[in-house]
Amino acid sequence: MYLADQHTFRNYRSIRHYLLLFTLLAQLHLLFTSPMFGQGTTPPANSLWLKGNTHTHTLNSDGDSSPEAVVQWYRDHGYNFVFITDHEYLTPVGPLNATYGKPGEFLVLGGQEITDSVNKKPYHANGLGLNRVVMPRKGTRVVESLQTDILNIRNAGGLVQINHPNFGWALTAADLKDLRDYTLLEIYSGHPLINYLGGGGVPSAEEMWDSVLSSGKVVYGVATDDSHHFKAAVDVSSLARPGLGWIVVRTRELSADAVTDAIASGNFYASSGVELEDYSTDAKGISIKIKEKRWSKYRVLFIGKGGRVLAESVANPARYQFRRNEGYVRAKILESNGKMAWTQPVFIK
Q1: Angle at the Cα of 52 (from 51 to 56), degrees rounded to 5?
Q2: Which residue has the higher pLDDT, 59 or 14?
Q3: Which residues have a Cβ under 8 Å from the Cβ of 59 and sit 6 or more positions away?
Q4: Which residues contact residue 323 at a Cβ distance below 8 angstroms, ignoring those fewer than 6 apart?
């Protein structure tokens, strides 16, 4: 009886070792073959899609309208949240939420645009969710000065968004690769003077984004209004109007923490007019379902390391299967009248 029990125990122990080995191999397989969603997070169950703007100005800096009028515009035009980011000023959002906020539908969030410059070139960064005003560094070297601004934003509890790198042709892709500890890069803006498409041998903001991603940095692309002008005007060609660029976050609820966490994790897409019905990624690939508009046609580009176009699709849903050599994969959706959307990079481990 003792010998039989000992034999049974040895068999059990062997089976247990095989199970442990199998579990370990399965975990290693997932580690080296699964893509990252954002920074390794997964979309929350029963999550919401919430539309918002992260770059907005009022009369408290250089906008033409009161905070009340600005907030009401976004609420009345179907947005779920808006960050007020006046230059060197934290516009109080408590009173605005008391009047215009609505649980589960609309929220005003605080922030600031830090307005720095070196040799008369403008370097701007948003601090989203700051707990105090951050004054610009005003240094003599670009990367050093902006890096200090980034550190000060983070120390004040803010999420860092580098704004319009081609405004004044101020920032280069090399500068953006040298900078550390920022989360967001503005790749599209409704402001008419920020040169987001590049030109004259200077890359677009989106091409700069690919350079940053290809260097191994995890940075998410945002589209914004950078809105300043809400009042009617005859000549609008030089005005920074609202409603031109936004992000759509996927999160569990409409709250300051949930929205900020979703943005920080890359759980959002950016848009200048294209809407998505759904976006999903798993160990095999990416699927994008477009909310089609009548008379519009769509083309989806899947883009990898170095800005290389990996595949194109005119199907809806558009699907991409990972090949495991892309470095990262992001999608750009183009609409036949010039509108676009951008998903965040999925890094292939």
Answers
A1: 160
A2: 59
A3: 65, 66, 67
A4: 310
